[in-house]
Amino acid sequence: MKKVLALALALCLVFALAAVASADWAPNGPVSVIVSYKAGSGTDNTARILAKYAEKYVGQTLVIENVEGGSGSIGWSQLASADPDGQTIGFINLPNFSSSIVNEMGTYTIDDFAAICNHVTETSIVIVRADDDRFPDLQALVDAAKKEEWSIKASTNGPQASNHIGAQAFANSAEFTYIDIPQGGTADQLLSLRGAEADFAVVKLADIAGQEAEYRILAVFNDERLPELPDVPTLKELGYYDGWLGSSRCIAAPAGVSEDVIAFYEAAFKAAMEDPEYIAAAEQAGMATDFKDAAATAELIAQQQTFAESLAEGFWYEEY
To answer: Label partner for 10 (CA 20 to 30 A): which of 27, 133, 306, 318?
Structure first.
C-alpha cells in the first residue's frame, strides 16, 4: 500500500512539473517576493517555507525581500509600483492590507494588484505569557480588565491591522477597555508581550509556531474548537465574540501583468502546496495551508475590503 501511495505521489509530482513546464510564460531570472514585514514574522516564516518548495516548480530562485514599515503599507506600495513583468510578486495580508487602504496609509487600491492565489488562512487566538499566573483562563483576563477602565494593555501589530482588529473585537464583545500598544508587525508585537510591556495579545496560531511554550492560549476566534487545540475554548462558547476571525496571506503581482503570468504562478504555487515535502514542512510549522485560485483570491480580497470598510465608528476606541 505504501509503495502504491508513493508511486501515486511521484506521478502527481511529474504531472505538476510537466504542467508548469508547458506554460506559455516563465520567469527569466530570480523572482523577487516582497514580504511587507520583518524577517522572523509570521508572514516571513510561512513565505520562506513555501518559497523553498516552490522553486522547483517556478524554475528560478525566489528571493524573499523584507520591506517592513507602515503596518505593511511600505511593502505593498513597492509591490504596486513594481514592473508588471512577472519578476516581482509579493504577499498581501488580509485584513491588514484592506485596513491600510481604508486608512489611506498608501496611495494604492485593490485595483493596483493582480491576485495569484491564497497561501494560508489562519484563525486568531488570545494569548498571554505562559508564566503570567494572573490569567489562568480568559475569564480571569476579562475580570481583571473590568475592575478598572484602561487598566489592561494589549500589544498589537499596528493600528487597525489584523491582530488589532481581533483585540478590539474581543474587548467590544466582553465590554472592557484596554490600552493599545501598537507595534510594526507581529514579531515585535510578540516581543512586546514577552517583555511584559503588555498583558495580552491577539495573534494567529502560526505566529507562535515553535514558541508555544512561551504563551498560554486562552481562547480561539472560531465557531468550534480547533482540532489542533481541543482543550482551548472558543470565544463564542465563553459568551463573547461569536464567529470566526483571522487572516489570509495571499500572493499577488502588480496590476498589468499578463494572464500568462498569473496562470504560471497559480499553477506553480498550487503544485508546491500539494508537494508531499511541503505538506510535511507546513504541518510541522503549524501552517494552515489554504490554496485558492486567482479568481477565488480576487473575490476574497474584495470581500475583505468590504469587511474593513464596515468597521464603522463605534468599533474602534478613539484614543490609544
So the answer is: 27
